Each structure stands twice: as C-alpha cells, then as structure tokens.
Description:
The chain is α+β, with helices and mostly antiparallel strands. The protein has helices at about 85, 135-145, 165-175, 210-225, 240-250, 260-275, 315-330, 405-420; strands at about 5, 15-20, 30, 35-40, 45-50, 55-60, 65-70, 70-75, 230-235, 280, 285-290, 295, 300, 305, 310, 345-350, 370-385, 385-400.
Amino acid sequence: MASKVMMPKLSPTMEEGQIARWLKKEGDKVSMGEPLAEIDTDKATMEMQALSNGVLRKILINEGESAPLGQLIAVIGEPNEDISALLSEAPTAKTEPPKPTPAEPPQTPVPAPAPEANGHAKPQAAQTESGRMIVSPLAARMAAEADLDLRSLQGSGPGGRIVKRDIEAAMSQSQKAPQTAGTFPRAVEPLRFQQSAVALASPYRDEPASEIRRTIARRLVTSIGPVPHFFLTSEIEMDRAAEMRRGINALDPDLKISINDIVIKVVAAALVQHPAVNASFQDKFIRYYEHADIGVAVAIEDGLITPVIRSADQKSLSEIASEVRALAERARTRKLKPEEYTGATFSISNLGMFGIDEFTAVINPPEGGILAVGAMAAKPVVRDNEIVVRQVMRVTMSCDHRVIDGATGAKFLQTVKKILENPLYLVV
C-alpha cells in the first residue's frame, strides 16, 4: 500500500524544512530506516529516514524548495500501484511572484553578458519576469564557496532554476578547462550597468532566505521587542588570565586553551554564585537552574548558532576547550543534534577575534542574559599614580529585566571581573 512521506519535525524549533538533497531518485527502491533525503532545518542539516518499504514513486518538493511541517513531499509505493489519490492531496505548485505594482520603483535588468572572443554569448542565468535570478539556496551557497558567477550559468531545474547539479557541472568544467602556458586566468568581469538618460533605482537580485536565517529573524522579533533589555558594561584587565593561558598551553600544546574557553569557565563559576542570573522568566514563575549550561555563539555561513556546553561549572578548562572545538566544527558542517544547541541557561558571544572592542548582544529567549565579549588589547591605565600598560577587555551583559535587576547583574559582573583578573580563584 502506498504511503505518504511528510516533512518531519527534526528539531524542537523547526517550523518548516528545506530539501537540501534527495538521496534517492524516483524509481529507486527504499527500505524502512534508510536515509531518504537531507533536510535543512532551522539549525542544521539532518537526514530524513524512510518510514516504509517500497519504491520512491514521486518527489513533490525539489531540492532547494521548502515545505511546512506535515506537508506531503513524496510518495512511496509499489511499482505499478495507483497513487493518484495521494497525489491529489499535494499542494498546488507555487507560482512566480507577481509583477511589481506601479508604486514600486522601476527595476533595471541585468544586462546580457558580453560576447566571448569566438562570437558566442555566455548563457544567461534563469530569471523571472521581474528580472530576479532563480537559484536554490544550496546552489547559491556552493557558487559562493567556488567563486562562480551565477549570471554565467544556465539552470537545469524547473523553470530554468539553477540547482546543485548545475554548480557541480560548472566546477567540473572549470577544472577541465585548459590554460595557455605562461598566461594567467582571466579575471572575473565586474558587473556593468546600462547607461540610462533617466535615473533608475539600483538593480538587485533576490535569493531565498535559508531556514537558519528565517529562524534567526523570527527569534529576534520575539526577543528584542517583548524582552525588556538593559545593558551593563565592565572593563577587565586580562594580563593574569592571558599569562595562565600561555602557561597551560606551554605545558601541553594539544590542549589549545583559548581566552574564550577561560571566559566560559569563569562565567559558569559566576552563575553558580549568582543563581538569580542563571534563571529564566516563565510567565507565571521564574525558573532557576542548578547547573550552568553555556551557549557559545558560533558564526556559520547562514547566520549564527549557539552550541551548548552542558554543566560548564563542573568541567575543567581542558574539557571545555575540547568540547567547544568539537561543537563548533559540527555547527559549521551543520551536523549538530537538536539537544546540542537547545536549552542553554546563559549565552556568550565573542567578537573579539574580529577586532570589535565593544558591542551589545540580543538575549536568546528564554535565557535571562547574554555576555558580549570584545577584543583584548593593550591600553594605558593608571595604577598607584603611575601609567602602566595592561591587556584590557570590555564585556557587556544584556539582561532580561523581568528576571535580573540592575544590582543583581552588576554583582554578577563584579564576580566575573574578579575571577578573570585573578584566575587562581578557579582553583580555590
């Protein structure tokens, strides 16, 4: 009997999924529990398994397209089985966006590519009537990584959509293309715009937002608006913490302790001392957590994700360092499991490696706070009426005022500052 393949819920916060890749094609045999497709969720790429045996009769959602939870995306059945009744339940095909209304500014189309030396024009990228290129998010990411010009590609997907196989073919062709000895590859031609007697709005292209980017947008709306933020900033001398890091790494270079690892450990220790900060607002009550589960913000291609160091207050620096590296690597390859990026009690966002001196971070609900860590830099400070140079780092704590009062947050930051400036507190 034919069975439906529905878009599954692969993460606690997932509302819809995007087909990154079908692992089977129509007509292939499938077995229960066998990987059927790779789904881009709001946080990671995860495998969807077949829930029945048979043949993959029909794929209803193509690679690069999205579907809400519970929507029919494929049908599995016997080779000659009538599946028309199930196909009738599939949603109608999506149509192209409507043309701009007169109220919208006019758009300038991207000019046709210049002819090659042999007189033939390059193939032009697929476009809608409004001039937008039709590219799947997966293909767009692959093209960016390979430095491919999407305008030079001809899409082979539905309606001329540029899909994964088009990028792979272009990359393969690029590797095979011969080059004349003693010459350098031709530079990519810059985008040239048509001259016009009338000033027009800038041309543009639209690319579908990834599931991660859309989830970030939704969660920010539920954070910065409803959550009453206030901010506390402290300047911390990091000379002793930096010296401790150098000493530990000199003893065992394989540990690779970073300043951020030390900050995680110190923040976890401070949270245990200040349980009112290690808490979250739950509408009719406030929840206080026994351990410090620290979310560590990691930048990935599509946005930001916060893998969680569980019970960081009970782990050594070496354990924290090893776990942070492993989680960050899985985050960048979109291999995190839902339990590895949900349920933090407090978060840390560090932009110091980008040279940012100071910034404010948005709270990740339902957490009560997040610490924004800036760059560590040598600065002159006054000590005992003398000017001396110290390694200084500025941190800013964003607090949910429904949970944390000003004095409570200030005392927590005082403890963080005290331990970072005197890291021997970690061993007493």
